Amino acid sequence: MKVYFIGAGPGAADLITVRAARILNAAPMVLYAGSLVPVDVLEHCRADAEIFDTAKLNLEQQVSCYERALEQDIDVARLHSGDPSIYGATAEQMRRLEQLGIDYEIVPGVSSFSAAAATLGAELTRPEVSQSIVLTRVSGRASAVPELESIEQWARHRASMCIFLSGPHLKKIVADLLLHYPPETPVALVHRASWKDERSHRSTLGKLVSEVKVKEWQLTTLLLVGDALAKAEGVESSLYAATFTHRFRRASVRKRRAA
């Protein structure tokens, strides 16, 4: 018997991994976060699977499902949105499983920040612009963010930032970002990346709040910030340049010498 913590991806049923789909197709019991995972993803489950929506269950009730699966010696597929390693609330479940002597495995998934970047047609790491991505959020009722990881602290680096669950706090987040990013910094809001009702809005940091109705971006919204979002041409990576040699390919064109 084993519990599989599966990254369900950002929302679209076909953005789940092949490994995840195979496990879902075999698991007799499935637990999924119904408030974050679209029901379409469950099309990968076997027809007779026993399915529980964990949005309605507390942690101990979920653990009782694992205990029953142990008694019946059946595998469990536990679906979390995006990738289980990011805001997945999986650590406490794994601790309970270890205490019960239940084996588990983590199956990675596509994160919503990757899906949001794809929606925008953006590469978040661009040469001489940003080579780092900050994945963060603001404090919520379920868990607080350490003071040293506040939006204002991360903004000092002016790297590409992906701020999860940003909708309800948009005005405060923008104000904190403006302490370090210039007002003309490109930004984008992406709501439900890859879902059927996906929508996005591009702007600049200084104009964003005046252009949108904050209440329309309350849930499942990601805010992306940084100069990497700009459409303007910039310095290109040398990786595929004809003048660049690496262990798998020799340069086919010589670099021009500076005059």
From TrEMBL:
EC number: 2.1.1.133
Protein keywords: Cobalamin biosynthesis, Methyltransferase, S-adenosyl-L-methionine, Transferase
GO BP: any one term: cobalamin biosynthetic process
Functional pathway: Cofactor biosynthesis; adenosylcobalamin biosynthesis
Xref: SUPFAM superfamilies: Tetrapyrrole methylase (SSF53790)
Pfam family, one: TP_methylase
Enzyme kind, highest EC tier: transferase
Residue ranges annotated for the Tetrapyrrole methylase domain, each copy included: 2-208
Molecular function GO labels: precorrin-4 C11-methyltransferase activity
Entry keyword Signal: no
Family: Belongs to the precorrin methyltransferase family.
UniProt name for this protein: Precorrin-4 C(11)-methyltransferase
Organism this protein belongs to: Pararobbsia alpina
